[in-house]
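Crash report, auto-generated. Payload:
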Amino acid sequence: MSPREIVVVALAGMGTVFNLLSVVGLLRMPDLYMRMQATTKATTLGLLLVMAALSVHFAQPGETVKAVLVILFLFLTQPIAAHMIARAGYRTDVPLWAGSVTDELAAAESASRIEDPSGL
Amino acid sequence: MIYLYVILAGLWMALNDQYTLGGFIFGLGLAILVISLLRSINVATPPLSPGRILKGVQLVGYFLWELVLANIRVVPEVFRPTSELRPAIVAIPLSLTEESQIALLANLVSLTPGTLSLHVSEDRSQLYVHVLRLPEEGPAAVVRDIKQGFERRIMEVFAA
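Recovered output after restart:
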């Protein structure tokens, strides 16, 4: 293998491992919020590494620009999607896993409900 | 403002591998359309200065470094017995006041593994973050990490 092929295999391999780990997390985590953490996070670094492997493999400016754009678009949209899904879950009372240590949002919300009897 | 149109037209050419005059003009047309659609969204952008660009590059570098570190830190969580997990929702008191800066902080927190932005209080004073593993020292450690990491660096970028 040429040095470039070794770099490509290493980057793509690491990227695939991080994506695989996020699937294991998706299957193992006990509640919505933790599953969101597992699926949306490891995949950002996973995709970044796979895209890096692609741009090293093709080694052309056009392909590298495209790979950077794919990463950029993912980094712009992924956190918003994760935030909205988790927030929608919380808003519709999807329960936290019973083993969760603290919920400071629930504490704040119940405090504001006491101050504001309208419940808004 | 002109450079934004040129950047978008350039992106269009890069995506299509068409570095021609026709491609540039079409990209420019799309840029004018997209920007006119988004004009109503007002984002406060301070003028660019060398110091601010340097701080911006530092923020991006810090974020990429944190992204790698946090990914490695989260790996054991995936294989830990369920009974040893310590998830929690933590309130982070915000020092940032500008909405676009709070949005940037929330997104960076969400992108970093182990933390997920859940909610911003109505008065924009608190960011509620779901953490996959609450440190032994408790919520204060999470607050300290985010405030001294991402929030301080965002402030430096936008500081006058």
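Post-recovery validation: Chain B touches chain A at residues 11, 14-15, 17, 67-68, 70-71, 74-75, 77-79, 82-83, 85-91, 106-114, 116-119, 121, 126, 128, 130, 132, 134, 139 (CB under 8 Å).
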